[in-house]
Amino acid sequence: MPTRKPSVPLGAIIDALDTELRTRDVPDSSVALNGLQVANNGQVTSIAVAVDASLASIQAAASCGADLLIVHHGLFWAGPQPIVGKNYERVHTLIANNIALYSTHIPLDMHATLGNNVLLAEALALTPAAPFARYKGVDIGVRGTCDEPTDVIVQRATAYAAQYGGSVRVSLPTGNRRTKHWAICSGMGVSPESLLEARLAGVDTLIVGEGTHHSAVDSAEHDVCVVYAGHYATETLGVQALGKWIEQQLGIPWTFLLLPTGL
Q1: Dihedral sign, CA of 18, 20, 26, 30?
Q2: Which of 28, 57, 140, 187 has minimal CB crowding within 10 Å?
Q3: Where do the domains of the chain lie, and which CATH numbers do they carry?
Q4: What is the pLDDT of residue 4?
Q5: 166: nearest Cα among 232, 211, 237
Q6: For 83-116, what is each residue's pLDDT tens digit?
């Protein structure tokens, strides 16, 4: 007889995730809709994790036999929309394949051990010493000190981003610069507010996923080197850490779905 896969109630996994991530307490954009977005039949035997709830990630989750897909960006980033066209295909594919969908945005970005920002710092051999990127009363990112050529940090970021199909750009020439005060905010991490916060904290190197064109103009004028390491690449680590955490806590196997956007 075939070996029966271990099965855990969906509700137990959602409760564990909501508690660990403080899903109900952490502020976020209303379109993030953190938590369980689509249910399944109530049991989970295999998990897939991905950055985005795209049709591609949902189809990949179905192909690998997952009955729970955990993502950083959920279904509703454009706000309420009719369930037609590609929106219908996403929802239909989830339901037809008995796949539940759980989304976690800022709660995952800011988590002290599983978060995108603290794990990105670790991947770049940087040690956080303070919070960064204040948003609605919580700190999303991290910052710290070092004394290294900025080129070395950019090289590490470039090697890291390449693993996830990304590339790195910088807002200033780095040849003669040294990084002594750095900050990290994954995803769309540079804004007028975060750049001002960086300047006030004495940050000389700001590592983000992406930013607006004008962020490069502002950073150059204020001598803050912004390292754009890719929105997708900088937000892959948290979902992978969540997959490992659930396996450790509940014994459910997991798979990371690598689906780079190139951005």
Answers
A1: negative
A2: 28
A3: 8-106 (3.40.1390.30), 110-234 (3.40.1390.30)
A4: 61
A5: 232
A6: 999 999 999 999 999 999 999 999 999 999 999 9
